[in-house]
User: What shape does this take?
Amino acid sequence: MRRLVKWLDNRLHYAWVVLAVTVMVLLAVAGIRAASSVMIIPLEQAFGWSRDEVSGSLAVGLLLFGLAAPFAASLMQRFGVRIVVSVSLAIVASGAGISLFMTQPWHLMATWGAMLGLGGGTIAVVLGAVITNRWFVSHRGLVNGIFLASMAAGQLVFLPAFAWIAQTNGWRPVALLCFIGGFAVIPLVLLLVPEQPGDVGLRPVGAAKGDTVEKGSTRNPIGAAFETLRTALPTRTFWVLGGSFLICGLTTAGLVGTHLIPMCFDAGVPQVMGAGLLAMMGIFNMAGTTIAGWASDRWDNRWLLMGFFASRGVSLIFLPYSGYTVTSLTVFSVVYGLDWFATAPATIRLLTDTYGKTAAPILFGWIFVLHQIGSAMAAWGAGVMRGAFGSYLEAFVFAGVTCFVAAALVLTVRQSGLRANAA
Assistant: This one.
């Protein structure tokens, strides 16, 4: 690793290599998790399971995905990024592999629910925040935007192919590819990602000679996560951002990420085309989230969040009344895709500015718990509402209204520091 750093020394800061490997990890995790959305209908057809049984199992995964996040940053500080990420990738890949032998709904809950939820949640968004704060002093908003955009790009790269495979050959080849892909990324992490810039004789990008560098922690990861949470609980900013992120989860991964393909299928749109819509969202989300990260370094993040939530609310209410034409679905994919993950860079920046760069990834993990609670509510609730009303209309209109609530909520965040944010 040091030889590679030395060779790159006059060409490129090694932080950009770490960024590239992190992007590949996030692509793999996002692609594997997104595969579950193309498996809903094939699983129903293969086993005779109901929509609410399948979506309920996936909701468990979304919830555990969030519950693992607060401890992820502490685990990485205590045991190291390489060990935690490699073990987590192995759990995710193993869950996909073991699912090849499932025959009962609880098997789906144990594999694509529990194993993929816990393993993926230990990586997910928190990894990007940890890498950003360790390796970058300048460009943090931009780098966070790239990491978050790469999670959406997992759909762009993999989902249309997964949908075609699932439609023509069933769900098992999709699970097998996820198993192989998850294990394929682990060697890159072990070989190319140092724990700290100082381990290879470097300073973070943009750091001056006198800047302090984060040290490895010897604290108990669980204790560190709860202690950081305790300091933030009395503050207004934590609860405002947490509430907005609950709504963010309800209106993204839980609703659109889980139910868009079945919703389009109900309207006569083939699964492959539905997956293509998610891929199109991935394209525009890559641009939107990267721009959002760049903007978070320059403008008031409260107003950025307000604009993202309001735009999302309009697009969600528009979709069930759109007629599902090629034009209307394209418009939805563009507008919705531009801000799918765009709320995260501004949220991370507000947390970093208020609580500091060491606490911010841990607190973002706790806020991400609320995000995934919202995701689980929508994944299960939308399936139940579809069964009760025969369509997804009510679920999408309700989600759109909650976005307008979040748009108003984020404007109440105070930006005058931790002490001023105390309730």
